[in-house]
Amino acid sequence: MHEIHASRNSLMKCAMILCALAMPCAGFCAARNGSTAAPPPAQSAAPAAAAATPAAPDIDPKAMEILRRAAAAYRVLESYDFRVTVQTVKGSNVSAKLLAETGAGHDNYRIEDDDPNGTLRVADGRTEWTLHRKSSTYTKIPLTPETATPTSALEAIDQHVTEAAIAREDFFVVNGKAVPVYVVAVARDRWPDGTIGGAQFAMYRIDEKTSVVYKAAIYDADNNAQIFFYSIMKWNQPVPSTLFEFTPPKSAREAAAQAAPNAPPDATTLIGTPAPDFTLPDANGTPVTLSALRGKMVIVDFWATWCPPCQAQMPDLQKMHEELAGRGLVVLGLDVGEDAAAVTKFATQRGYTFTLLLGAEPDITEKYFVPGYPTTFLIDRQGRIAFRTEGGLTPEKLRAAVEAALSAAP
């Protein structure tokens, strides 16, 4: 289900294999940008020596240039304030960590977990302090060039690349505006600290004009995903220097230095949880709100016109729409990254009449922990997630879940 359309050998082989195994389409739009700050201007090409290096057979020079520009944007970044959501997705079992990341220069930064029992990391240019709130302990280590900072992985986005391809160009919403992005597929021989174990490849959403990275989705060989959403609050705007000062709480004791905490929070299942509400427009601009459909069974399908498995599932959704609407089923197709014209043309040519909505990425895909496309949910009459599937390769299971839910007592 990957959206990789480039002809690069290994990435194409990976995409074909993963399609056959019903792994997720790794093409994602990405970013919740709550900022009014202007992002950086487009960066110039990498230094001549790097640019002159011959590309490996599986590295598209255009994709590599996009990565170099992104790396350059973060290497010259003077100050920043990000909100970062880090998700892990293993089927219906998911977890999320919310971080506030602030920095001034390379060696002054603050990373604060919003979990009251989470960690706080503060670097003052010489020392990195880590407060472990749950154990009421703290550690300190001297900063070195190898110390991982909030931007170090993005500064090195063009490093250790063994394969790279431009999968496609897409749109996603930043501050209420659809912004064009490159979707770049990357394989590496070395991954940054904190990356999901056994990482195979990543898909990056990179602003075509500014080279800001809004989303990174990393996949292992077992259909598991680690997804980073970057919301840019400040870019090259002043941040308080007091954020990079640290005084240990009186109740905390110093402990031996230990590795930075990379483990995700405990996973929970989506099944049985309330479905996140949303309001999205259809192709005509008419808003549709999920909670307004309470009392009906609702299929929520995340899809895109370029995604072959999405296309393969659409006839089954249309059939259920035609046959089961009278029994209380509503089918909603939430398109990702495309405009009304593209969606309307696709639906009209194929005769699809169920409701298609626009602008699901990134806010709604984040709320639903969508690792790829199609990802399909069944919402029961009480507004809870009753069923979830990826890949569109089990239409009979989706149909059975719908039939069972419709037959159950309200």
Polypeptide structure, described:
With 410 residues, the protein is α+β, with helices and mostly antiparallel strands. The protein has two domains: 9-261, Lipoprotein localisation LolA/LolB/LppX (outer membrane lipoprotein receptor (LolB), chain A), CATH 2.50.20; 270-407, Glutaredoxin (3-Layer(aba) Sandwich), CATH 3.40.30. The chain contains eight helices and 20 strands. The protein has helices at residues 9-20, 48-51, 61-75, 152-155, 308-324, 340-350, 363-367, 395-407; strands at 79-90, 93-104, 108-113, 119-124, 127-132, 137-142, 161-174, 177-188, 199-207, 213-220, 225-235, 253-254, 268-269, 279-281, 287-289, 297-303, 329-335, 355-357, 375-379, 385-390. The strands form three sheets. Strands 1, 2, 3, 4, 5, 6, 7, 8, 9, 10, 11, 12 and 13 form a 13-stranded mixed beta sheet that branches. The chain has a five-stranded mixed beta sheet with strand order 18-17-16-19-20, with helices on one face. A hairpin with a 5-residue loop joins strand 9 and strand 10. Mean pLDDT is 86; it is low at 1-54.
